[in-house]
Amino acid sequence: MIQMLEPAPKPDSMARKRSIAVLVVILTGQFMTVLDGSIVNVAIPSIRADLDTGGAALQLIVAGYVIAYAVLLIGGARLGDRCTQRRTFIAGLAMFTLASLVCGLAWNELSLIVFRFGQGVGAAAMAPQVMTLIQRTFAGAARAKALSIYAAIVSGGLLAGQILGGLIVDADLGGTGWRGVFLVNVPIGIALLVMAPRVLPVTVARTDRTVDGVGSVTLTATVLLLVVPLVLGRELGFPRWSWLCLAAGVLGVGMFVLVERAVAGRGRDPLFAPQVLGAPGLLATAATLLMVMGTFGGWLFVSAIHMQSYLGYSAQRAGMQFLPMGVTFAVAGLSWQRIPAGLHARMIPLGLVLSAAALGWLAWLLGDGAGIGASASIAFGLFGLGNGLAFSPLMTRALAAVPVTLAADASGILVTSVQLGTVAGIASIGSVFFELAGTTLSSAADAVAVVHLLCAAATLVAAASSALAVYRIGR
Q1: Which of 31, 228, 402, 443 stands 20 to 30 A from 267 (CA)?
Q2: 0.85 exceeded by the pTM?
Q3: Cα(378)–Cα(363) distance, rounded to whole angstroms?
Q4: 332 Cβ contact partners less than 8 Å away, ≥ 6 residues apart
Q5: In this structure, is the dihedral angle defined by the CA atoms of residues 272, 245, 127 and 331, taken in order, positive or negative?
Q6: Which residues, 6 or more positions from 141, have their beta carbon under 8 angstroms from its beta carbon?
């Protein structure tokens, strides 16, 4: 009997399968880095009770990861060019996985803060390589689709973290409690470490690109000078050093600009290359993402604490309250391309206006100390819908116009804006909430109303900024 053999796969079919495998590996890694920016939020009350942690330390546990992630992202992008994206991604993934393990084994608040910084360093090495690998692996419509999924993951991971964090904490698998939100990364990281060397493409190191050490140090110092006083100042009564640090941070911004100009003048590669900064609408997009994620990150942080500490919700219930927002955000973020292209430019700012209106509605609904009822759930859904109609389309449109040679730097700038916005929102909005919340449900409800109104105002400013970004991209 003659055995029928299946025809060998066509080369283009094999290439497509390999491309999909690359996308699965790098986007799963990206998802983990974004997820870790918020998954710890719903574990905060458990961490506070277990480690006897104060408000400032809690903010550092949440924000410390994002601080390290944000300030090192641009350097991570440049490192990928120097050492290849493949090697840098794998090294960052290994460090992130190891840091996740020791976070889950932390014995006090200081050790957890330090290990969270370690997670951020690993994420900063891994995440910037994702955009460059997408640009080099996909072309045409396939690239646009991959970029859209990437943008949805960057923004949607924060929401997923809220939901998954609650499920993991309440599941208390093996008695791990809050530690499970960190330990969950370990098996996923190990699986990716096995797959990555087999599927990631081999790229050539760009020895012509230098690492801007002075710029990296200046940027890191500036961010720390601005963020640390916001995180620690309230609990310490905003002592003189906190105001001096803030003033020095403002001066540091000017110093960073001068340093970057000097680096460029010497013919070397500054962190923010002039060609990248000149890309259509990139700076306006970065400013918009900074404001959107500042509002989003701070709001998520405050909402998780309010629901568990004042409304008495379990971690799982608090996490599930974000589900309507997560669903509408995911649907809008992944299907916006089905909307006629002629409407995309107006859709982005209008989406943010919708988000601002939803936040204003929530201020009215929750200001009397009420729980999350049907009306509030609808408002959550509208908030997610508005952000989904704005975030992914704006990021995709900005990145699609960037040449492959500048992909690493451009993605580093935008993702840095996302992370800096998140940490600034946690620090500033969290400080406002802790200052006003007090110990009673009534005072906490008043604080929540103020926070929502502040977030609504910031989102309206972001809507105006997004309109400018869309205009510049479309010119």
Answers
A1: 402
A2: no
A3: 13
A4: 351, 384, 385, 387, 388, 389, 392
A5: negative
A6: none
